[in-house]
Every structure is written in C-alpha cells, then in structure tokens.
Design brief:
The complex is a heterodimer of chains A (about 60) and B (about 260).
Chain A lengths: L9 H8 L9 E3 L8 E3 L9 E2 L2 E2 L5
Antiparallel strand pairs in A: 1-2, 3-4
Chain B lengths: L13 H18 L1 E5 H20 L2 H8 L5 H14 L8 E6 L9 E6 L5 H8 L8 H34 L10 E2 L13 E4 L4 E3 L13 E3 L2 H6 L6 H19 L1
Antiparallel strand pairs in B: 1-3, 2-3, 4-7, 5-6, 5-7
Classes of the chains: A alpha+beta (about 60), B alpha+beta (about 260).
Amino acid sequence: MAVPKRKMSRSNTRSRRSQWKASAVHLVPCANRACKELKPQHVACPNCGQYAGRQVVEPA
Amino acid sequence: MPTPTKGPRLGGSPAHERLMLANLATSLFEHGKITTTETKAKRVRPLAEKLITKAKRGDLHNRRQIQRVIRDKDIVHKLVAEIGPFFSDRNGGYVRITKTLPRKGDNAPMAVIELVAEKTVTAEAEKARGTKFAKDAKPAEATEAVESQVEAEATEAAGETTEAETAEAAESTEAPFDEGSHGPLEDGSQPEGFPIKGNAGSKLYHVPGSSHYDRTVAEVWFADEAAAEAAGFQLPPSQREKAAEADEDAATEDES
C-alpha cells in the first residue's frame, strides 16, 4: 500500500485549505407582495408559506 | 419500451424501493398532501399518476391492478370512488410537487407532493356555460343595457338642451340635469347645499371625503347621492363595493 514518504508541512496544508470557500446562497424576494421576504429560488416561502400564489405549507 | 431506472434504488434494494413507493403513494391518496424528500417525491409521482389513471377506468381489472400496489382496501375504494372521478376532466398532471426548505438535521432537499385540487380552466368554462355569466347570453344583455343607456342619455341630453336653453336664458349656473343638481360656479367653489361633485365626462360622482374628491373639477354639483344616481352618474369603481356593503348593512338594519 502506498504511504506518504514525508510529513505534509503546515504551510502546504494551509495553502490547500485556503481554497475551501463557501458561496452565498442565492436569495430572491418572495413573489407574495404582502411578504417580500428573501427566500431561496423555486422554493415555497418559509415566511408566508406561499408558492406561485398558492398556500403550500403552514407559515413558520 | 420504458427506460429502466438506472443507479441505486431508494432504500438499497428493489424490493425496499417498491415498498417505500407503495407506502408513499398510499399516504398521498389517504391525506391528499404529504411532505417528503424531493427525490422520493419525484419517484412517487409517476407511480401515483399511473394509479389514478387506472382508478379513472375503475373496472375490476384496474382495481386489481391498483391493489397490487396499494394494499389498504379503504384507500383503494377512496381512489376509485372519489379521486378517479374528480380527475375525469384532467388528462394527466394529477399530482403537484412544490419544493420547500431543506430538512433540519441532514439538510436533505424536501418537497410537498399533493393531489391537484383545482379544476381545469376548460372545466370551469364548461360549467359556467348556461349560467347568467355565460358568454352567449352576454351580448343580448349588453346590447339591452347599451340601448337603455343610450335612451337614458338621449332623454337626458334632450332635457339638458332644453334646460340649458332655459338656463342660459335665465342664468348659466342653474340645474343642468334634474332636481338636486347645480351647475358650476364661476370661481369653482361649492354651491351651497350641493356638496357632491360630478364629472360629466366620466359620468362619475364623488362624495366629500372620498379619495378623488379634492382632485375632481366639478362640472356639475349634486345635493345628494340619490340625485346623482338619478342623473345617471355612478360612484367610482373603487368605491362601489363599499357603498354596496353599506347599503346592505343599512337594509339589514332596516329589517331588524
């Protein structure tokens, strides 16, 4: 089985991990004019529970 | 030939997947609306729609076909007796999936899957045919209304002209329509006892305190709403409902 010959330096480890990035969630305002809360796209609004003018889920 | 489902089954084995989908479909028909993961919702939708198609046929063979999936006979009866006939006017698309927020805990994408409760637009239109709102009956009513309106206007116009002549002879600020109306004063102020503004162009009248009252330049003044109505003027469309409600309230009070 292949095994590492050398200890990975702290610098190399940290350089590699510096590329791990989180991206912001894409949010859009709710289409319900009474709500306008920011929510993920194509998802029933967690604030008012509506999607495309229909009540889909109970508002939280 | 239908394309075989590729990749791993839900739950690990084909038997487990069949059972899970059957249980999901049973719950969907029992409750009409269930919350599950998006993947399961997408996999149960074709199964549920095929079952509804069989339920629409509803004969013994199709009932047995349904019973191969749904083992609860109460649900099978509900499917054949209620859900199938409800979708008789809809050709497919019986089930709707709406995505919701991911689940707390494992962040699995979740969805609500439900039987479509609305009737189709064409079905609504078919139902409306023959009622008083029907398209065919409308032109006759409309023409009648137009005719009556034209007549009313003609009579009004005649009255106006004659009255206008007499008014011009006497004074230009006299009543242009009927009793309870008053022509505009030269300085644009309100004639005493005639608080309601009328717009002769739009045939609308505005009561004091309404939203357009201050903006309206009165071409005619009315003593009260009844006089304005009598002259063929109407409330602005935005205020008609309120007025109707108020009238109803007044009527109920009168009855009581």
